[in-house]
Amino acid sequence: MINLSHVSKEYKLSGESFFALRDVSFEIKEKELLAILGPSGSGKSTVMHIIGLLDNPTEGTVKINGKDVSKYTDNELSLARNETIGFVFQQFNLINKLTILENILLPTIYTRHKLTFDPKTRAMELIAKFGLLGKERSFPNKISGGQQQRVAIARALIMNPKLVLADEPTGNLDTKTGNAILDLLEKLNKEDGVTVVIITHEPDVANRCKRKLYIRDGKLYTKSDYTV
Amino acid sequence: MNYILFIIKAAFEDFNRNKMKTFLTSLGITIGVSSVVLLIALGLGLKAYIQGQFDTFGTNNLYVIPGSLSGGFSGGPPTTQLFDDKDVSSLKRIPGIANTIPVYEKYMKVEGPVTTKTYQVTTSSEEIFSTLTIKIQYGTLYTKSDVAKGAKKIVLGPKAAEKLFGAASSAIGKNATINGSAYKVVGVFEAKGGGSFGGPSIDDAIYMPVTASLSFNPTKKYASIYLKVRDSSFITPVKKEATTVMSKRYKTDEFSVIEQTELIKTINSIFGVLNTVLIAIAAISLIVGGVGIMNIMYMSVVERIREIGIRRAIGATKKDILYQFMAEAVLLSGLGGLTGLLFSWIVILFLQTLFPAYIDAPTIAIAIGVSSAVGIIFGVAPAKKAADLSPMEAIRYE
Ligand SMILES: Nc1ncnc2c1ncn2[C@@H]1O[C@H](COP(=O)(O)OP(=O)(O)O)[C@@H](O)[C@H]1O
Ligand SMILES: [Mg+2]
Predict the structure, then answer these.
(1) pLDDT of chain A along its 228 residues, tens only?
(2) Lowest CB count within 10 Å: B29, B201, B205, B377, which one?
């Protein structure tokens, strides 16, 4: 569904050029559970921002269902993020002044098509499904990290996206809570057929995924040619 | 619809969280709008007041005054005493004129048994009473024969009578001293209202026969001559004829024959210019208020870069972010405007006990419109900055 070919990302820092990504090519297939594993600073987040249409590569092309996104307008990019991609971040990235329910509903505010579901009903379903009942009027800083991450996942799912991008989703959680979050993402992939990309620096986390890609110093490897 | 409500609700929740900041930010607009609205209200009140003053004079009046109105009183100050009895008698001969009333006014110290105060003393003929539709309440008005004899009699407005003699009813038959001579109060007329802030009211007027004023108007000159015409159809021909008569003795820029409406228009236009200048000065404070809003909005954008990044990640377009921040700026200034409007309305309620100040629908519309416009003008740059942030940079922002 998403295809990166010869993607590079170059930053110019005080005249010196630095490549956060170098000639990265790979494909994300529909309904797969993919892990991108790499040490800190290797370019994982950079690649996720590019897949997630939050950033443009300096070279190479990104295609969604065969369409080159470099020609997309801001409206089209926003629409694609809104309808087909759900983000889960290490820092949860909830808006603290909005309630749990309002956070989960936020993507439905920005939709430009008529929704095929009732936002509130769907939000309450997700809240129930993720064990957050009774918290819908709470604010993010009043609930635990595990609960916050579940709110973030609920927000990522409310628009029924085809793809969920999780950047270090367990990075701020203890192992047990982290595992529960990973179970949830796994289930999402298996039962609901959502494509899930998990980005992590922990091999244990990556090992839960069928397919793994490795990244170091901005270069992407498949298992065979990657050496730690 | 849902979206607009959401944006407005979000803005209000933000204001609620930062009440002090919101108050201080919108204070500039509150002050600006208050001062503009109050000045407009005073201007409107002044206009109403002037109209009211003239209404008490009755209608179908023409005024012969020194100077040229079109040239902006170029013929000399309007208080110049130019005219005399010769003019009065030649004007009297014009057909269609009911009364010809010479008027000489002077501020004089008037000594009564209770107080001594300076009043504008109007010296004229007995015809002034019918021209100004003055009705007697106590005593009598001075008569034609009083004028002929130069009788030292005066007729007081009720306010002046009360001030000088303690009560309007007790003034009759008593004397007041003006310029060293005793004048007998023969009458006190009915209150007509008008006048405030110490401004002249007809109820403060003192009338005496023009012939009794020789001690302070020895040459018997008049500042103006009122012409009361028989009915409104005579106004135009009498005006024309009076102009012809007067031009035999005076140059055309030395005198004017004007209608009441022209006089009101001229006075209004003078005050109108003054009022506009004051309003323009007050409007500067709106710009200062707008800059304050811009400043706070820039700070707000920086504080909320991460939030902007999150919103962009879940599908907000540049426009969505632009509108969100614009809405906040406009609501901030609109709120300031409404507070200013409310504040000035309360002040105007108090003012109304002294002066007919008021605000009308256009003023309210202007206040709301201008304050919203200030929000748009000064909110657009910070909102544009927020909208143009790169989603990636915003979401990475620590
Ligand atoms: N906006 C930026 N400007 C300059 N350098 C950046 C920027 N974003 C990321 N980098 C650099 O790119 C490299 C990869 O970053 P990132 O993708 O965040 O790594 P990871 O998520 O794997 O830790 C890092 O060295 C980082 O410092
Ligand atoms: Mg990272």
Answers:
(1) 999 999 999 999 888 999 999 999 999 999 999 999 999 999 999 999 999 999 999 999 999 999 999 999 999 999 999 999 999 999 999 999 899 999 999 999 999 899 999 999 999 999 999 999 999 999 999 999 999 999 999 999 999 999 999 999 999 999 999 999 999 999 999 999 999 999 999 999 999 999 999 999 999 998 756 555
(2) B377
Q: Does B352 touch chain A (CB under 8 A)?
A: no
In the block, tokens 């793809």 appear at A163
pLDDT averaged over chain B? 87
Radius of gyration of chain B (CA): 31
Let me know: does A205 contact A182? Beta carbons within 8 Å: yes
The domains of chain A are located at 30-60+73-221
As a whole number of angstroms, the distance between CA A157 and CA A36 comes to: 21
In A, minimum Cα distance to B1 occurs at A109
Q: DSSP string covering B51-78, please?
A: HHHHHHT-SSEEEEEES-TTTTSTTS-T
Question: Which run of H or of E encompasses B29?
Answer: helix B19-56
- Longest CA–CA span in chain A (Å) reads 53
Chain A with chain B: Cβ pairs closer than 8 A: 64
- Least confident window among A150-159, B71-80, B81-90: B71-80
Taking 70 as the threshold, does the pLDDT of residue B76 lie above it?
no
Distance from CA of A79 to the nearest CA of B (A): 6
The distance from CA B52 to its chain's CA centroid, rounded to whole angstroms, is 11
Residues in chain A closer than 8 A to B309 (CB atoms): 93
Q: How would you classify the pairing of strands B97-111 and B116-124? A: antiparallel
Decide if B17 and A97 are in contact by the 8 Å CB cutoff.
yes
Q: Check: CB of residue B196 under 8 Å from CB of residue B357.
A: no
Question: Which atom from ligand 1 is nearest to the alpha carbon of A168?
Answer: 21
Per-residue model confidence (pLDDT) at position B75: 41
* A30-60+73-221: CATH superfamily: P-loop containing nucleotide triphosphate hydrolases (3.40.50.300)
* ipTM of the complex model: 0.95
Confidence band, pLDDT 50/70/90 cuts, at residue B69: low
Domain extents for chain B?
2-52+267-396, 83-249
- Chain B residues in contact with A49 by the CB 8 A cut-off are 392, 395
| Residue B19 near chain A (CB below 8 Å) | no
Rounded CA gap, A142 and B230, in Å? 87
How far apart are the C-alpha atoms of B55 and B143, rounded to whole Å? 24
pLDDT band at B196 (very low <50, low <70, confident <90, very high): very low
Do B2 and A109 count as a contact with CB atoms less than 8 A apart? yes
Instruction: Output the CA A172–ligand 2 centroid distance in Å.
Output: 12
DSSP bridge partners of B185: B154
Cβ A109–B307 below 8 Å, yes or no? no
**Under a CB-based contact definition with an 8 Å cutoff, are residues B50 and B303 in contact?**
no
pTM of the prediction?
0.76
